[in-house]
Design a protein that fits this description.
By secondary structure, the protein is mainly alpha-helical. The chain has three helices and no strands. The chain has one domain. The chain starts with a helix and ends with a helix.
């Protein structure tokens, strides 16, 4: 009988600790999924920003590219930025649009 109380107490503490750790893991997973959703929303917004810059400035003379390497896109954007009078923010948005 004297041993039963400490063993019961240990079992109770272990089960509580186990339940707490699982709840903590679940909240971490929920936070990670919420952060991923937020990152995707930001990525989509920046893609739209770059597309909008392209449509407002570049599409007067150019069709949207189907894709090219980051090295080429960086060179193209730097040269055309001067000619089109684009801001630094517009340049960065275009680079994100060309290379998602």
């Amino acid at each position: 009988m004297k041993i039963f109380a400490p063993i019961s107490l240990c079992a109770l503490l272990l089960s509580t600790a186990h339940a707490f750790s699982q709840a903590k893991e679940g909240s971490v997973l929920l936070m990670n999924s919420q952060q991923q959703v937020k990152r995707n929303a930001v990525h989509n917004a920046t893609q739209r920003d770059g597309q909008q810059v392209f449509e407002e400035n570049c599409s007067r003379c150019h069709n949207a590219p189907q894709g090219f390497s980051p090295r080429i896109s960086g060179t193209v954007v730097k040269h055309m930025r001067v000619r089109a009078g684009l801001s630094d923010e517009d340049e960065k948005a275009l680079l994100r649009f060309f290379n998602p």
